[in-house]
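ok trying again, last paste got cut off:
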Amino acid sequence: MEDKKKLAYTLACVGLTFVGVFHFVFSTLFGYGLRAVSGLLIAAGLFGLFVLNA
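nice, full thing came through this time. structure:
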């Protein structure tokens, strides 16, 4: 059960990071700003992965 829980959290963090990167790319391409939101999403996802794998 512990492995499934860790996998679920890992997938959630990877998904959060993907959304951050996706948001950053489109905010850069279309110039609508809010790049700080992208940075926060990416940082939160990477921090979660770091905590899970520590």
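cool. Helices lie at 2-30, 35-52. The two ends are 19 Å apart (CA to CA).
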